[in-house]
Design a protein that fits this description.
2 domains; four-stranded mixed β-sheet; 11 helices; ATP binding; purine biosynthesis; ATP-binding; ligase; PurM-like_C_dom
């Protein structure tokens, strides 16, 4: 008989066996990112979560969020480091959920690759699972898709979706914000996962910096600084809601501090934030100086050192700051809520950064 030279999925570039090996490698890590409500394990067509756990709520509201990591994945690819990008993915999703006061319950992920390298896919999932543990939620499933011809062999992207729950009468948002409330800023761990198109353009294309360049201001290489994982605030924020009164949160992502805080400020009020209350990390100044980027452009692109904001009544400030400090999170009073003038924006940043 003649040798079969017909087309197959493998000759088209999809390696099913490699995908199966990746699943086996990731099972250990997914097993660690669980909660008591999870039913079954990895390998089913759908992840299962026991909704009877919601019976303790009077009126449970389900919250849903989805996000990706953006072009930060290009830095991970260039560095050959794949086990941190998952922390970024989880942070981007669960910290959107917690803004309304929701406890993250579970996540699913989607990993798209040009070619399945089992160890690489398993490393990505390891990071996602570790992030879920830090967020207190379960990783109940996901999908790895191989797209030969659309992505290069080394190219990949990640996305995820999460579900949380909040009691209806504890839902946080603009309707709770009051005149006299205080704006508490929580420090970011660095760039997080926004603005990397600008960062890459400035540092790689314009400045010509290499990822292994030692940067004294960073105390490490450029690549290590750029891959610093997004801080996951969900458990910190939930701790605040348990220990004191909170009127709102704002997750500082694309659009920067002012634009994201504005999303939780009601039309008749105005938030002021004093830049002099903190010093942005060195990476923000480096991007600005090397790229000749104006401050306002930086501020609407990068988080400038603030990754999450809590808006609390004056009487909650001391407890809030103590709670966050006890959890190892740097936080400070950055501003307040006042009546909005006729032509005022929702949020105004004043003063100059400290240092």
């Amino acid at each position: 008989m003649s040798e079969n030279t017909g087309a197959s999925y493998a000759t088209a570039g999809v390696d099913i066996e490699a995908g199966d090996r990746a699943v086996e490698l990731m099972k250990e890590w997914v097993g660690k990112a669980t909660r008591p409500e999870v039913v079954g394990g990895l390998g089913g067509f759908a992840g299962l979560f026991d909704a009877s756990a919601l019976k303790r709520y009077e009126r449970p509201l389900l919250a849903s969020a989805t996000d990706g990591v953006g072009t930060k994945v290009d830095v991970a690819r260039r560095m050959g480091v794949y086990d941190t990008i998952g922390h970024d993915l989880v942070g981007m999703v669960v910290d959107d959920l917690v803004v309304c006061g929701a406890e993250p319950l579970f996540m699913t992920d989607y990993i798209c690759v040009g070619k399945v390298f089992p160890d690489r896919v398993a490393a990505i999932v390891k990071g996602i699972a570790e992030g879920c543990v830090l967020a207190g939620c379960a990783l109940v499933g996901g999908e790895t898709a191989e797209h030969p011809g659309l992505l290069g062999e080394d190219e990949f992207d990640v996305a995820g979706a999460g579900t949380g729950v909040v009691e209806a009468d504890r839902l946080l948002g603009a309707d709770r914000i009051r005149k006299g409330d205080v704006v508490i800023a929580m420090a970011s761990s660095g760039l997080h996962s926004n603005g990397y198109s600008l960062v890459r353009h400035v540092l790689f294309d314009r400045a010509g910096w290499a990822l292994d360049r030692e940067v004294p201001e960073f105390g490490r290489t450029l690549g290590e600084e750029l891959l610093e994982p997004t801080r996951i605030y969900s458990l910190d924020c939930l701790a605040l809601t348990r220990t004191t009164e909170v009127h709102g949160f704002s997750h500082v992502t694309g659009g920067g501090l002012a634009n994201n805080l504005a999303r939780v400020v009601p039309d008749h009020l105005h938030a002021t934030v004093d830049r002099s209350t903190w010093t942005p990390g060195a990476v923000f100044g480096t991007v600005g100086e090397l790229g000749g980027v104006e401050r306002l452009e930086l501020e609407k692109t990068l988080n400038m050192g603030v990754g999450m904001v809590a808006v609390v009544p004056q009487g909650s400030v001391d407890v809030a700051l103590t709670t966050l400090a006890d959890r190892g999170l740097d936080a400070w009073v950055a501003g307040g809520i006042v009546e909005r003038g006729e032509h005022a924006e929702a949020v105004e940043l004043t003063g100059d950064y400290a240092g």
